[in-house]
Specification:
- The structure is a single chain.
- With 370 residues, the chain is an alpha+beta fold.
- It contains eleven helices and 19 strands.
- Strand 14 and strand 15 form a beta hairpin.
- The chain is globular, with a radius of gyration of 21 Å.
- The two termini are 35 Å apart.
- Bound molecules: flavin-adenine dinucleotide.
- The site of flavin-adenine dinucleotide (FAD) has 43 residues, from helix 1, helix 2, strand 13, strand 17 and helix 11.
């Protein structure tokens, strides 16, 4: 019979929760650890993302967040290799890079270039003539292209692999939603679910967009809300584009190996409303086809929506609770949680094991009095 007492309970079954479990169990194989949460929640960000590993296209300031994301990108190849070995699930990862066509970032072209130069980010400018040769399927009026050394992962395979690895390493996976906590003013004792109560010495709250609801059940206020994204996946041959395309109107993420291209995405303040609007999807495809014309006629494989967990200051909330001695948070990874996964897993497992050398104050739950 399954016991209901653990060393650590992680609440949340997305890439964040499972990657912490993976790292903790690699570091301390004897830990009795449970991951609670619905592993296929239809709005979970981890399966809804495009899988771009894009610290350089996404950040425009050299702050602690940028450093964190940059390190995470560098950890990706070894992380995926280790994960595949344990989970025996293939994770499609490409480090071929991203491109920004002049046409889609016109106003920001000079800023981006200056930022890449200042920060020693590996990049190249491909003049228009080169672009025609290298990328024959790109729209003829794209202009020059800025290439930057970034990555792309199939985030659904990543999530599958993390779930399989947690299980393989001995985590107890419990498909149940937490509805409340057993706690006093300084300690959390247990969690309440429809299938009973579970107890542990330490707890991690890794529930993405649902984190403020759980914080409320603990009597604290976490200013975090979902930012909805609608997107779709189109059937296109892999050879049409070997890079991820970034633009301010749209992005195009090749999932490779016959899985087509993901086109995204909206940024909507629409609560937990899962509705996908056909006209919005058609608008995304039309914008993307301005860059890669073959997308206009490509069959739509699927369209969906997902929720990005966004804290008020758009920074992740990672670390030890200031209020409860045995509670830890890892949430608020917003637009870049897939990118942050490897570094976040190291950061959080070191926090839990008491070996973290340099906590980042900007990420601390204490900034919200949590
Ligand atoms: C449209 C879209 C595109 C994106 N594109 C990218 C991208 O290209 N690159 C990138 O790096 N990032 C991207 N992101 C962001 C990234 O997906 C997220 O930051 C990341 O997946 C967050 O992971 P998570 O595990 O914290 O949250 P989630 O994946 O949302 O998982 C939350 C988990 O908590 C569980 N849960 C919720 N409530 C409870 C409860 N009461 N009890 C128990 N469990 C509970 C859920 O069931 C779920 O298992 C994108 C996100 C979206 C929505």
């Amino acid at each position: 019979m399954q016991s209901n007492r653990f060393d650590i309970i992680i609440i949340g079954a997305g890439v964040i929760g499972h990657s912490i479990a993976f790292r903790l169990l690699r570091a301390e194989p004897g830990l009795k650890l449970a991951v609670l949460g619905d592993p296929v929640n239809s709005l979970m960000a981890s399966r809804a993302a495009a899988g771009m590993l894009a610290p350089y296209c996404e950040c425009d300031r050299a702050d602690r967040f940028f450093d964190f994301c940059r390190t995470s990108l560098s950890l990706y190849p070894a992380f995926v290799q280790e994960l595949q070995k344990i989970s025996r699930v293939k994770v499609t990862l490409s480090m071929a890079g991203s491109i920004m066509p002049y046409k889609s970032v016109e106003d920001q072209w000079e800023n981006r270039l200056a930022f890449f130069r200042d920060q020693n980010i590996p990049h190249e400018v491909w003049p228009e003539n080169d672009v025609r040769q290298r990328l024959p399927y790109l729209a003829a009026d794209c202009g020059p292209v800025l290439w930057v050394e970034e990555g792309q992962v199939n985030n659904r395979c990543l999530h599958d692999a993390l779930v399989a690895a947690s299980r393989e390493l001995g985590a107890c996976l419990i498909d149940a939603d937490v509805t409340g906590f057993v706690h006093d003013t300084t300690q959390v004792g247990g969690v309440v679910t429809a299938s009973g109560e579970y107890f542990a010495d330490r707890f991690v709250l890794a529930t993405g967009s649902w984190s403020s609801q759980l914080a409320e059940a603990l009597g604290v206020s976490l200013p975090l809300k979902p930012v909805k994204g609608q997107m779709c996946r189109l059937q296109v041959e892999d050879n049409r584009l070997p890079y991820t395309v970034h633009g301010f109107l749209t992005y195009i993420a090749p999932w490779r190996e016959g899985n087509g291209f993901v086109v995204g995405s909206t940024m909507e303040d629409d609560g937990f409303n899962p509705v996908v609007q056909e006209e919005v999807i058609q608008g995304l495809i039309a914008d993307a086809a301005e860059i890669l014309p073959c997308l206009a006629e490509a069959p739509v494989i699927e369209s969906w929506s997902g929720l990005r967990p966004a804290a008020a200051d758009r920074m992740p909330v990672m670390g030890k609770s200031a209020r409860y001695a045995n509670l830890f948070y890892s949430t608020g990874h917003y637009r870049n949680g897939i990118l942050q996964t490897p570094h976040q897993a190291d950061y959080m497992s070191a926090t839990l094991l008491g070996t973290l050398k340099e906590p980042v104050p900007e990420f601390s739950p204490a900034r919200y009095g949590l």
